[in-house]
Specification:
alpha/beta, 7-stranded mixed beta sheet, binds S-adenosylmethionine
Length: 204
């Protein structure tokens, strides 16, 4: 059996429920209007996040790194009644795009957008977070993780994005991956979807 990473990714995307029309348009606008559209999680990982939220049924989600909103919108769609996402990003322009598409998708009332440095925003939040999605500045992943872990619910889950990019020379991510592996407080699994998502929880 032999296939490339790209073939696996393409096949997985073709055999997963596709994005809604609203999210497809969000993808087109992100492509046309931003410098780094590849930052968006896109349809396959978006569907994966939506599934995780549907399974976990978190009341409080924290997202670090909103960009134009694909991941927060997908997660918001699967929240249980009363569930909420606090979504942090330093960029007001991309957050405005995210908010517009969240409104179109009918989930804006479940997302609390906080524009500012994620570390400063985090200081204002107590948690406990049932689910945290870390997808902001890669060199800061260890610091996001250490800031978030004390505010994680006992049975909470941290998802860290782009963790396979260590293989492409991303040193911040490589350091983060080693940090988590050496942390006896938690267990983790790196899922090779897109460029990798690591699922982390406290050791039972
Ligand atoms: C990879 S993108 C997020 C992609 C997003 N999850 C999606 O699905 O479209 C990273 C984002 O992190 C934001 N960011 C970087 N450093 C930050 C910080 N210290 N605080 C808050 N946001 C930050 C950037 O502005 C950028 O929008």
């Amino acid at each position: 059996m032999s296939f490339s990473f790209e073939e696996a990714d393409e096949y997985a995307a073709a055999h997963s429920t596709p994005a809604t029309d609203v999210l497809r348009r969000l993808g087109e606008e992100t492509e046309a209007e931003t410098d780094a559209p590849q930052m968006s999680v896109g349809a396959l990982e978006g569907a994966f996040l939506r599934f995780l939220v549907a399974l976990k049924r978190p009341q409080l989600v924290l997202e670090l790194g909103v960009f134009t909103g694909w991941s927060s919108i997908e997660m918001a769609k699967a929240l249980p009644p009363g569930g909420k996402i606090v979504a942090c990003d330093v960029n007001p322009d991309t957050t405005a795009i995210a908010r517009r598409y969240a409104e179109e998708e009918g989930v804006a009332d479940r997302i609390d957008y906080r524009v500012g440095n994620a570390f400063e925003t985090l200081e204002t939040l107590d948690g406990p977070f049932d689910l945290v999605f870390i997808d902001a500045w890669k060199p800061d992943y260890v610091d996001y993780y250490e800031a978030v872990l004390p505010k994680l619910a006992d049975d909470g889950v941290i998802l860290a994005d782009n963790t396979l990019s260590a293989l492409a020379g991303n040193e911040g991510i490589a350091t983060f991956n080693e940090h988590v592996m050496a942390d006896e407080r938690v267990e983790c699994v790196l899922v090779p979807i897109r460029d990798g998502v690591t699922l982390i929880r406290r050791r039972p």
